[in-house]
Design a protein that fits this description.
This protein is mainly alpha-helical. 85% of the residues lie in helices and 0% in strands. α1 packs parallel to α3 and α3 (40-70) crosses α6. The relative contact order is 0.13.
Length: 213
């Protein structure tokens, strides 16, 4: 049943997952390739195209609507400003490596586009970065399965547990990011409210000073 499902939808799900985010689903696909449910060569190839296409889209969105996109979420705004500082110092290095920094997958391409980074150069270096990322993470997940087999013997008895553990880990990382984003949003709202209260109080203080003899 699992094998049939993966044959029908596995690579499409991998493409969508790597298009939007990528780390967890690529690790899952690499492990499933080790178990024989998927082909590791196709896993790496599909992950490359998904990652490459997604980051090209975010880059061009950043060139056209960068500030508006970052302003949608307080956390994105803070991370985008920080990303712009990094890009201005070492642009090529960040284009090649941002996929390996957890949490920057969406914000960094937007910031790169917003920074005015040349489109043709991004097209080339983004492709190199996507290829290295897909190959490195896919191979690491594949060999993770081999290490488990060396430790546990027959991995088939535990594969559902391993898959469940990887899904749980991905879910926990996602929840951590959501809670962090909510915390940043609350802090930004509190700061904005405090700033508004301070601004509203300033005219009253001025008038009070003028009324005094």
């Amino acid at each position: 049943m699992l094998q049939q499902f993966l044959q029908d939808f596995g690579y499409f799900a991998l493409f969508l997952g790597t298009f939007f985010e990528g780390e967890t689903i690529l690790v899952l696909a690499g492990f499933l390739a080790f178990r024989g449910y998927m082909d590791i060569n196709f896993v790496v190839l599909v992950a490359f195209f998904g990652s490459y296409a997604g980051d090209q889209l975010w880059y061009f969105m950043g060139r056209r609507h960068g500030r508006a996109l970052l302003a949608r979420k307080p956390r994105w705004q803070l991370m985008g400003d920080r990303a712009l500082e990094h890009i201005r110092r070492h642009p090529d290095i960040w284009v090649l490596s941002f996929r390996f920094v957890y949490g920057l997958r969406t914000v960094m391409p937007v910031a790169i586009g917003l920074s005015g980074y040349p489109p043709r150069r991004y097209l080339l270096l983004n492709g190199i970065g996507a290829a290295v990322w897909a190959l490195a993470l896919g191979a690491a997940a594949y060999h993770f399965g081999a290490i488990l087999e060396g430790l546990l013997g027959n991995v088939k008895k535990y594969e559902l547990w391993v898959l469940g553990g990887l899904l749980l880990l991905g879910g926990l990382l996602w929840l951590r990011r959501r809670f962090k984003a909510a915390r940043v949003a609350r802090r930004e709202a509190a700061d904005a409210q405090a700033e508004k209260a301070r601004t509203d109080a300033e005219p009253r203080d001025v008038h009070e000073g003028q009324d005094r003899p």
